[in-house]
């Protein structure tokens, strides 16, 4: 079904061969399963980064452009495959590169990764949904598309919505690619800068945790499991920070609210 002016019209049944449009999404899911099966996602942790902190800093100092490129590429992969660890990656970027460089690099990597999964979902799930859409789906799509940028900013600014969900839902609702990229780029700026700045101040925390962990290993050489490596990032996500993001999200919806209010009053 195609949506137009709130109405749904029949669309022809996709011809044979259309299954090829599912290949990008299938490839992403296959890679995701492979990464989880190999356990590579477990390396996205502060333990891995912390215990290799000095070596990473030495490598970055000697090969800055290469190191930054690896970081951006890794961020693209993490987002495109919907792997856990986005927050750790952002904090690590600030820690290793400083927030001035890490923030724009992170924004670029996250936007590219999100766009990849958006395009894959749109080429497969989007068409499948359109072919089976009922009137309520058409109404939802038309309502979202009318104010797509505002809604996208709202979803991106509020950290309560999982990043992967916000990557896929706009594809199902027919959001234009340009609008999606702009909404993603602008919407992740505040959170990215906030966490990159926080990550840039974690150097002393990492050093202290490394000492504690190594001392524990020295006292328990045959029982490494008795020596946890923990960097508490929960303290970084404060109520005040969440409130600030929520207020920004509400601000993004002001044009939508004004538009709906104007239409309602014009109809009276």
Quick rundown:
The chain has helices at residues 23-38, 46-51, 53-62, 64-80, 86-97, 99-131, 135-146, 148-157, 163-172, 177-187, 189-200, 203-219, 239-267, and strands spanning 2-4, 7-9.
List the helices and strands and how they pair.
Elements lengths: L1 E3 L2 E3 L13 H16 L7 H6 L1 H10 L1 H17 L5 H12 L1 H33 L3 H12 L1 H10 L5 H10 L4 H11 L1 H12 L2 H17 L19 H29 L1
Antiparallel strand pairs: 1-2
Would you kindly provide a written description of the structure presented here, covering whatever features stand out?
The protein has 268 residues and is an all-alpha fold. The chain has 13 helices and 2 strands; from the N terminus they run ββααααααααααααα. The protein has helices spanning 23-38, 46-51, 53-62, 64-80, 86-97, 99-131, 135-146, 148-157, 163-172, 177-187, 189-200, 203-219, 239-267; strands at residues 2-4, 7-9. A two-stranded antiparallel sheet has the order 1-2. Helix 1 (23-38) crosses helix 6 and helix 4 (64-80) packs antiparallel against helix 5.
